[in-house]
Amino acid sequence: MPDTTPDVRTDRDMSSSQPVSPTLSRWVAPAALVIAVIAIAVAIWAVVRSPAEPAASPGGPAANAQQSGDAKARICAAADLVRNAVSRQTNLDPGPDPTAREAVAANARLATVGGGEYLLSRLDPATPPALADKVRSFANNLQEIGMHQLGGLANTDPAVAALLTDAQATSQQITDMCK
Questions:
Q1: Tell me, what's the pLDDT at 9?
Q2: For residue 27, what pLDDT is reported?
Q3: What's the pTM value of the predicted model, to 2 decimals?
Q4: 9 contact partners, CB below 8 Å, separation of at least 6
Q5: Are 99 and 29 within 8 A, CB to CB?
Q6: Closest by alpha carbon to 79, among 172, 163, 150?
Q7: Rounded CA gap, 22 and 7, in Å?
Q8: Per the count of CB atoms within 10 A, which of 22, 99, 146, 161 is most buried?
Q9: How far is the C-alpha of 42 from the C-alpha of 50, rounded, in Å?
Q10: Are residues 104 and 94 in contact, defined by beta-carbon separation less than 8 angstroms?
Q11: Helix H segments across 18-128?
Q12: In whole angstroms, what is the distance from residue 129 CA to residue 115 CA?
């Protein structure tokens, strides 16, 4: 009489009989790169979609010294945070792996573009006008640099190099004004 017992395999049997496909391990790094690119695209969409800064009421009351001082402290802290984030992300050592290099570069670009948007969103109508102007200039430079980098231009490109020089000088002026 033939055996009519159904062929039942346990989880243990299945896991030991099915080796991990070598092609699967080859797709992990490219998949991570695709996810990073999608994250950058979403971040850029959020930057383009959101308003640059809140509108100040032209007929509203002028800020008092306390409000102006608080606004200055907040924007100085935001500028410091952005400088640190951009510096950290642009100076990471990715090692020799080309995928890691692309991931680090993507994070640096995201920090640059996002840092510009972050600063613009933190400007307050009570921020002292001279400081607000410098912060706007710095933020716009960061966004411009980031977009050039996303477009494939290297930091050695004359347009990008000029923006980097201007951003560094403006950043130093903000630091001096925040003392």
A1: 47
A2: 65
A3: 0.67
A4: none
A5: yes
A6: 172
A7: 28
A8: 146
A9: 12
A10: yes
A11: 22-49, 65-90, 98-122
A12: 20
Q: What is the mean pLDDT of each run of 10 residues along the chain (179 residues)?
A: 50 48 62 70 65 45 84 97 94 90 91 96 96 98 95 94 97 97
The closest of 145, 41, 42 to 86, measured between CA atoms, is 145
User: Token digits for 118?
Assistant: 């972050």
- Is 50 within 8 Å of 118 (Cβ atoms)? no
Both tokens of 28, joined, read: 């992990």
Residue type, 175: T
d(C-alpha 96, C-alpha 93), whole Å: 9
CA–CA separation, 19 and 71 (whole Å): 60
pLDDT score of 35? 75
- Maximum distance among all alpha carbons in the chain? 99
What is the token pair recorded at 141? 């430079």
Return the amino acid letter for 79.
A
Q: What token pair was written down for 67?
A: 């409000």
